[in-house]
Specification:
The protein has 453 residues and is mainly beta. It has five helices and 25 strands. The protein has two domains: 188 residues, Jelly Rolls, CATH 2.60.120; 196 residues, no CATH class. Helix content is 9%, strand content 35%. The chain is elongated, with a radius of gyration of 27 Å. The termini are far apart.
Length: 453
């Protein structure tokens, strides 16, 4: 038997990822020749040349998978957006005892009154349409050594332990669990027979958490809705909150006295989300992998949705035709979806290099200050700016040394907290390099100082 002590609703914690320092002067012009080009201001003693019309390719690419294990937040729900299509976030989680070897009344005297799962909501994406969820028991044991990916489909029992209809995406009102109030969240009712399975069928299974995990590997929760474009939403959950729980309310047949027992999603429980996408009929479906069609719009989507491949092959010609010091290289990423809309752009983006084996690598610029590297969304300007000066200088030096470095980069979704594309459901629509209907475009700006030999 337990007594509840309410705690403060947990808020989002913004965690800085890197520390940064330094900046360089930037001028502007529109030229596309590598030798003696660009606008050189008469009051510019450094003879800085700036070019923003380089011929490079940018392509929207479908993501294969992302790591999903070990993060503070998980996602659950289904949403459909006209540009990016449908996203479904499923939840896989262990549950643990709120108390090992608890005192319970005589098992034969227990009558289950209700079983409810409460999942504390930290943030929502999309619309707040009510949703349907099915809950299944896992048949596989979860192991942190497995390094789960976003496309992992767990082995689960096909007979559900819950089939909840019209679950309210509740972010404001308290939730009642047998007379006790909890912070806002998803309240998903489960079958009473599931409570009987947990409490009645094997008393020895709740002696310890390890005994319990051997008996009950966990749950798989799957959204059921097929929303039209512009409907549905995904909730970011904080299961480690002591508000999140499965509560079994029961009473004594002999005395009618009321009791409850809680199972928790604590720090010791393995939990992660898996994702699926359906882009049929959405705008992104027409451009995936197509360099030509990506000229107008580019699409970045979390949850192993999509990223942008940037091919800077022109750097080889630049290195051949110029002896210069690179002062500043900045990628300007104009955003076409509004931060105030329900389907908002990412809080930040990252740009990675690609090694000779095709694997993403962290750029040296990312270890500089935030004012140097950038990548955080500027809602006032409606764009991101990412500085990759040192990386580009390295590529140019490699070409001058007759090396053949990989000149591809990936522009990938991120966040202000660890987990990035695994823990948010943001979507960023980017103005392409050559969209004739837009006043601003995706571009790379290089400022450099020629060196006379």
């Amino acid at each position: 038997m337990n007594k509840i002590i309410s705690t403060k609703y947990l808020r989002r914690v913004v965690i800085p990822v890197f520390f940064y320092a330094g900046f360089f002067f930037l001028t502007s012009c529109n030229q596309d020749d590598f030798t003696n080009t660009g606008f050189v201001a008469t009051d510019n003693p450094l003879n800085v040349i700036t070019v923003d019309t380089f011929s490079f390719e940018a392509t929207t690419i479908k993501e294969d998978s992302v790591n999903v294990q070990g993060y503070l937040y998980q996602l659950l729900g289904s949403m459909n957006e006209e540009n990016f299509g449908e996203t479904k976030a499923n939840l896989v989680t262990q549950i643990l005892l709120s108390e090992e070897d608890p005192f319970l009344i005589n098992i034969s005297d227990i009558v289950i009154d209700s079983v409810n799962m409460l999942l504390n909501i930290q943030q929502t994406y999309g619309e707040d349409n009510p949703q349907d969820f099915k809950v299944f028991m896992l048949k596989e044991e979860l192991d942190t050594a497995n390094d789960y990916k976003s496309n992992h489909i767990p082995n689960f029992d096909q007979f559900e332990v819950g089939n909840a209809k019209n679950v309210v995406i509740n972010t404001e009102d308290s939730v009642d669990l047998g007379g006790d109030k909890f912070a806002p969240g998803l309240k998903i009712p489960l079958y009473n027979t599931f409570g009987e399975y947990l409490l009645n069928s094997n008393r020895f299974a709740i002696i310890s958490n390890q005994d319990f995990l051997d008996y009950f590997p966990g749950l798989y929760i799957e959204p059921q809705n097929q929303f039209n474009a512009g409907e549905g939403g995904i909730s970011r959950l904080i299961l480690n909150s002591n508000q999140s729980r499965i509560r079994i309310n029961y009473h004594s047949k002999s005395t009618s006295e009321l009791y409850y027992f809680d199972f928790l999603f604590t720090l010791g429980a393995i939990k992660f989300s898996t994702y699926s996408h359906n882009t049929a009929g959405a705008a992104i479906d027409n451009v995936l992998g197509d360099k030509t069609k990506s000229e107008e719009f580019l699409y970045i989507k979390s949850n192993a949705g999509s990223y942008v491949d940037i091919d800077l092959t022109f750097l080889e010609k630049f290195a051949k035709n110029n002896t210069a010091v690179i002062n500043k290289v900045e990628l300007v990423v104009p955003v076409e979806n509004n931060i105030d809309l329900p389907y908002a752009p990412h809080p930040r983006l990252f740009i990675t290099g690609i090694d000779d084996e095709g694997k993403e690598i962290v750029l040296i610029d990312q270890f500089e200050s935030e004012s140097h590297y950038g990548g955080v969304y500027n809602a006032t300007e409606g764009q991101y700016k990412l500085r990759i000066t040192r990386s580009i200088q390295q590529k140019i030096e490699q070409f001058k040394n007759n090396e053949n470095p990989n000149t591809n980069y990936h522009l990938i979704p991120g966040d202000l907290i660890p987990g990035g594309a695994a823990v948010n459901a943001n979507q960023t629509l980017i103005a392409g390099k050559n969209n004739p209907n837009l006043s601003r475009n995706f571009k790379l700006i290089i400022s450099y100082t020629p060196i006379n030999n």
